C-alpha cells in the first residue's frame, strides 16, 4: 500500500485538481492507496485573515468569507455532475454557516485564541478532502472520506500539537481493518482525548501522511508538490537549484528544519521508524523522478543542499564575569526553554565570555526580558552586560552526511561568503556533523545563498 499527499499548491484551481485526480486514478490501478489532502491553495491563509479581521472588529471578514464559500461551491459544481451535487453543496454550505457563526463570535468578543484558531483552520482540510472524495467517486473510485480528527490523537498544545502515537496507530489500524476502499484523509488536523480540534503545525499535512504511512506499514509515501523534489536550494531564491535525487532521512530533516519547506521536518520521524521510503514528486511534471528520502545517503558532492531561515534575531549574552559563574549556559537555555523560546542555533566562544543564540525575531523581546530577569544580579554587579539583540538576520545552513568524512566544508563556506563581502555574525556546527550553519544579515541572504550554491555545486 502507498500513501500519497497533495499540498495546497497542487490543488489551487480546477485544472490542477483535475490533473491530481488523474494522477490518483493512475496510481490506484497499480496498488492500494490512501490519499491525504491539504486545504485548497490559499484557503488556510484566508481563514486566518478572516479571523484576524473579525478580532479587530473589522466587518471586512464577511466579503472574504463569502468569496471563499463561492470558490468552494464553484469547485463542487465543476467537479461533480449536477444530479449528484446537492448533498455536497449542502455539506459545504453547512460548514460555511458554522464558520460564519464562529467569526461572528470572534467579532463580538474580539478574541482569537490558539484553540479557536485550530478549530477555524480545520475547516480548510475538512471541506477540501470531502469535496475531493466525492469527485474521486465520479471517476469510479470507491472512496471513503476520513476526518483525521477521529483517528489522530494529540495533546492540547494548540497550533503545534504532539501526537500520541500508541493510541493513534491503533485507531488508524482498526479503522483501516474495518473500512476498505480508497481512504481520502484530511491533512493537518487532529484532536485531543476530549475531542477538541488541534493541528499538527503549519504545513503539517505532510506529517499526517507519514503518520498514516507508519501506522499502516505502507510500502511508500509520496508527497506531491509544485516543484520536482527537494532541490539543492529553494528554487525561488536560487534559480540554478537542481533536484537532489536521493537524501537520507536525517539530511531531509536537517534541510527542512533549516527552512526547506518542501517537506515538513516532523514527517521524517514516523517514516524513519518504520523504514518507509518517501518520494517527493512534482504534480505538474509527474514523469520526473523527484527525490527519494530513505535510510542511506548517496552523493559525490561534499554537501546535499543549502537551506535558510529568515526573520531571525541574534541574542548576545556576554560579560567578563561570566567565566566564574557556574552553569551559565544551562541557566540561559533553561530560561529560554521555560519561556517556550525556540533556539535555532547556538554558538559559544571558547573563552566562554559570550554565547550567541539565534532565535525567531518574534521571540526576541520576550527572550531578552526573561534573560535579563534571570541574570539581574550579575547585570547589576557588572559581571554581565545587558542582553544585546541583532535584528534582521538570517540563518544559512549547508547540509550533508558527506561532511563527516571530508573536511573543508566550513572553509569553502567562509571563502564563498567572504569573497562576496558577506559578514558572518555567528557560526555553528550540528553535533551530528550533518550541517554547518551561519548567521548573516537578512539583506545578504539571497546573495549568500547564490554564492554558496555556486561554490558547492557549480564549481
Ligand atoms: P505544498 O503546498 O505542496 O505543501 P509548499 O509550498 O509547502 O508546497 O512547499 C513547496 C515549496 O517549497 C516550493 O515551491 C519551494 O519554493 C519551497 N522550497 C524551499 N526550499 C526548497 C528546496 N530545497 N527544494 C524544493 N523546494 C523548496
Ligand atoms: Mg507544504
From TrEMBL:
Superkingdom as given in the UniProt entry: Bacteria
The enzyme's E.C. designation: 1.1.1.3, 2.7.2.4
Keyword annotations from UniProtKB, A to Z: Amino-acid biosynthesis, ATP-binding, Kinase, Lysine biosynthesis, Metal-binding, Methionine biosynthesis, Multifunctional enzyme, NAD, NADP, Nucleotide-binding, Oxidoreductase, Sodium, Threonine biosynthesis, Transferase
Transmembrane segments: none
Cofactor(s) listed: a metal cation
Residue intervals of the ACT domain: 317-392, 398-459
Pathway in which the depicted protein is active: Amino-acid biosynthesis; L-threonine biosynthesis; L-threonine from L-aspartate: step 3/5; Amino-acid biosynthesis; L-methionine biosynthesis via de novo pathway; L-homoserine from L-aspartate: step 3/3; Amino-acid biosynthesis; L-threonine biosynthesis; L-threonine from L-aspartate: step 1/5; Amino-acid biosynthesis; L-methionine biosynthesis via de novo pathway; L-homoserine from L-aspartate: step 1/3
One GO MF term attached to the UniProt entry: homoserine dehydrogenase activity
Catalytic activity entry: L-aspartate + ATP = 4-phospho-L-aspartate + ADP; L-homoserine + NADP(+) = L-aspartate 4-semialdehyde + NADPH + H(+)
Known partners and oligomeric status: Homotetramer.
Job description of the protein: Bifunctional aspartate kinase and homoserine dehydrogenase that catalyzes the first and the third steps toward the synthesis of lysine, methionine and threonine from aspartate.
Record-stated family: In the N-terminal section; belongs to the aspartokinase family.
Protein name, entry field: Bifunctional aspartate kinase/homoserine dehydrogenase I
Species whose genome carries this gene: Cyclobacterium jeungdonense
Gene: thrA
